[in-house]
Amino acid sequence: MGKLESKQVENLVDAGTYEDGEGLRLVVKAKGTKSWIFRYQLAGRRREMGLGKYPSVSLKLARLLAADARKLLSLGIDPLAARDAERAVQLEMERQAAARRVSFQQLAIDYHSAHSALWSEKWRKGWLRKLDLHVFPLIGHLSADAIQTEHILNVLRPIWAIKNRTADEIRGQIEQILDAAKTRGFRDGDNPARWRGHLSNLLSRSEKKKARKCQHFPAMHWCDIPKLMVELSSLACRDAAAARLLILTGARAKMIRFAQWSEFNLETGVWSLPASRMKMRDAFKIPLAHEVIILLQGMERMEGSPYLFPGQGKSGVMHDNAIRTLLHRLGYCDITRHGFRSSFRDWANELTDYPREICELALDHDERDETESAYSRSDLLEKRRPLMADWARYATTDQTDNTLQMAFK
After folding, report:
1. In this structure, are 255 and 402 located in the same domain?
2. How many separate helices (H) and strands (E) can be counted in the chain?
3. Between the chain's N and C termini, which has fewer beta carbons within 10 Å?
């Protein structure tokens, strides 16, 4: 029989601890709040277990809870540990229930809203369009934790061979969405849309290569690059500076258009691009040759804009066709901006002895196999630095006497 009575518990106002017996006690605080505590000892260690506040937990209920705890102790079970385990199970059940209420389509929309501000308008529209056409009809209604490898294959197989580039982009989108869902606690385990070591075992590698294979763009022969650079250097306009930076760094046109001053460290000679601005969504660094640093130091910054090449449109940067229009005006109508990357690559092949791996990494093409990439994660920045310095020196030097050309042979 307990020491306390219901009416007594109700009327207690003085702060203190009131024993009911067998480890059950009522703690009254100075502010008047009352709480039940069960005190016990297990393996020589004294512990206290809260049973709830009065009057939500009455004297009768507190005694029942204390009795349940004593039963567990008689079996050698810590009642606190048992309660924590029970709560963990309950929380997991609630998490799973919440996850089932959020569809993959909603997760995709959430991901798009969170990340698309930094994307181009074309990619922003196309990102959801591809999912609308190929993904949502099949798995859009499923929760993230319900999506398994077979669901991903059902999405990809119909288009893997006939629209392989689109299929590969969709696979990457699904992977990103499910990764975000895991971070939000909506799924556990491996990502079923992962390529390396997973879908690579189930889908044709040759088709994967086709999906990654770039379109061939009309390119200027590397021998003609120095002549073009002379013409561009004579033009005191923003578009010409952008074209020169494009050629000297081997960057993609979009990387140039959205380049921000904060990304450049002229002291260390490095252009650091965040993952959000890269085609493969991996951060990338470009070593800056002396000629590039001189070019940047000579450019004026527009007040109020973070960009090297600001513009008046919605994007806030120069027009997408600005460099192409300039090239056409100079009479170069049969080449493209992207083709300058091929010009650089052909020059490196024919006039230098730099390893293929270095030349490809200079263009942000990592051709190391899966095992090698897992162990060698360096971007080989310092090994790329002399390559880019030689390219800039070649591109900005008068080639009429062939002296520099002979130096590379």
Report:
1. yes
2. 19, 7
3. N
Answer whether 288's CB lies under 8 Å from 269's CB.
Answer: yes
Q: Which two tokens stand for residue 369?
A: 């196999």
The DSSP element (H or E) to which 35 belongs, if any, is strand 34-42
Contact 259, 237 (CB under 8 A): no
Domain residues for 42? 6-100
User: In this structure, are 81 and 120 located in the same domain?
Assistant: no
Query: 65 with 180, same domain?
Result: no
Instruction: List, as own/partner pairs, every contact residues 51-56 make where C-beta atoms lie below 8 angstroms and the sequence separation is at least 24, other chains included.
Output: 51/24, 54/9, 54/26, 55/10
337 and 253 Cβ atoms separated by less than 8 Å: yes
CATH of the domain at 20: 3.30.160.390
The pLDDT value recorded for residue 214 is 45
- Total structural domains in the chain? 3
Question: Do 265 and 380 have their domain in common?
Answer: yes
27 — phi, psi (to 5°)? Answer: -105, 120
Sign of CA dihedral 52, 54, 56, 59: positive
Specify whether the CB–CB gap between 102 and 143 falls below 8 A.
yes
Q: Is residue 200 part of a domain?
A: yes
Q: How confident is the model at residue 268, as a pLDDT? A: 95
85/254 Cα distance (integer angstroms): 52
Residue reference for tokens 């909506």: 186
